[in-house]
Design goal:
CATH superfamily: Isochorismatase-like
Number of helices: 5
Domain Isochorismatase-like: 9-176
InterPro entries: Isochorismatase-like_dom (IPR000868), Isochorismatase-like_hydrls (IPR050272), Isochorismatase-like_sf (IPR036380)
Structural class: alpha/beta
Keywords: Hydrolase
Protein name: Isochorismatase family protein
Shape: globular
Organism: Sphingomonas paeninsulae
Amino acid sequence: MLTMLDPETALIVVDLQKGIVKSPFAHPIGPVVERTRELIDAFRTHGLPVVLVNVAGGAPGRTERPRPNIEVFGDGFTDILPELGQQPGDILVTKRTWGAFASTNLEGQLKTLGVTQVVVTGVATGTGVEATARQAYEQGFNVTLAVDAMTDARAEAHDYSIGNVFPRLGETGTSHEIIKLLETRNS
């Protein structure tokens, strides 16, 4: 349940990039992108940071399940979706792990701005979004997850993260609930 947003809250948009959104998802990607854009617009209106994250590789190491080699997907794979309206003031983070904090300077950038809370959206719920939320929580940020602005290729992973993991990492709410909190906290 969503209770509040800190005065310095940032929006983190995970992996809404050209090469990823072509994948099959449990929920249609169009509404996820639309809700994320509504959140982006609201955060910008209130002068709050917007972080756009893309993935351009994978963590090294062996796994039992073969991983796709992102580097061979070609030009444009890592491009942020134009529908998100990337602005020069946005923070762009390119990651090579599931989470946006592990191998980047995102934590330092946010803490320099005085950010104490993050709202996370994007794909995939059970990997990139969850890993980013876990890492944010572990770095001491208050975490909010916009559950209607994310999806996963696997419905069971999406549902498990939302029902079991996210309530242990922070608060959950819809994009419209988050936008309403943004509007009422400044009135």
